[in-house]
Amino acid sequence: MPTRPPQEGWDLHCHTVFSDGTRTPREMVQEAKSLGLHGVAIADHDTTAGWEEAGQASHDLHLPLMRGTEITAQDGNVSVHMLAYLYDPRNRHICDLFEKTRRSRVERTKKMVALLAKDYPISWQSVLEQTKEGSRTTIGRPHIADALVAAGVYANRNEAFADAVSTHSKYYIPTPSPSTSEVVRAVEGAGGVSVIAHAADPSRNRVLLSNEQIARLADEGLDGLEVWHRGNPEDQRARLLALAQRYHLLVTGGSDWHGAGKPNALGENLTDDATVAEIVRRGAIPLCR
Ligand SMILES: [Zn+2]
Ligand SMILES: [Zn+2]
């Protein structure tokens, strides 16, 4: 198990216009190729909508692609993002899980917009206009932030996230999410590989997942931890590596690239080839190439 971030390999955590990224799947593959990455994974929030375009681009541009999704979950009072790789997208249980999440996310975003519209010049329509792929985009707070920027309230998305769209704002409504155990089970049932994204990022959670929570998830079938991510501080990386060793979890890395939507640079964190090969061995569907 590598204990230092790999210098070459795959970026296993990338977002496109099919969730809150600003680039298309084809642009993602193109940029990964020009950077000399060994491959790239698409991991849009709670959707597989970008898989087809990404697969076609991977084939055309001769860069291997791993198909994945970042799933929002809840573990007690901790909001957890889980990366799911190479699962069968036709599996009924996992389709139902996404459908339920997407429906409740739309409802929750509508409620937040209704609250914000009392004080700011935005509407549900102006938020919908910020989604690049219409109803195929997983809608959420980034699109509210973009609508506030378009209305001239904030200069950019980050300013909106620091104020009206923040989790501490009076307009905030939490996303209803499945439990981490449900997600691990659903991904396993669909033949995929589950990894906790940015597993110890204090800027996202005041309370981090405890050793006991991670141990329980490992016992329930969790495959790995995303250790190499800009959000995990040094001391937390050491804790995560120790847990990975103890519970035989895979160690992955990814940039959490969002195109121009976030400062994260494609390929800034990577997963080594041996770990990618193990994910492929466990997965239900092959890489695209
Ligand atoms: Zn995330
Ligand atoms: Zn992400």
Automatic annotation (TrEMBL):
InterPro entries: PHP_dom, PHP_domain, Pol/His_phosphatase_N, Pol/histidinol_Pase-like. SUPFAM superfamilies: PHP domain-like (SSF89550). Transmembrane segments: none annotated. Residues 10-75 form the Polymerase/histidinol phosphatase N-terminal domain. It holds the Pfam family PHP. It comes from the Bacteria. GO terms for molecular function: 5'-3' DNA exonuclease activity; 5'-3' RNA exonuclease activity. This is Phosphoesterase.
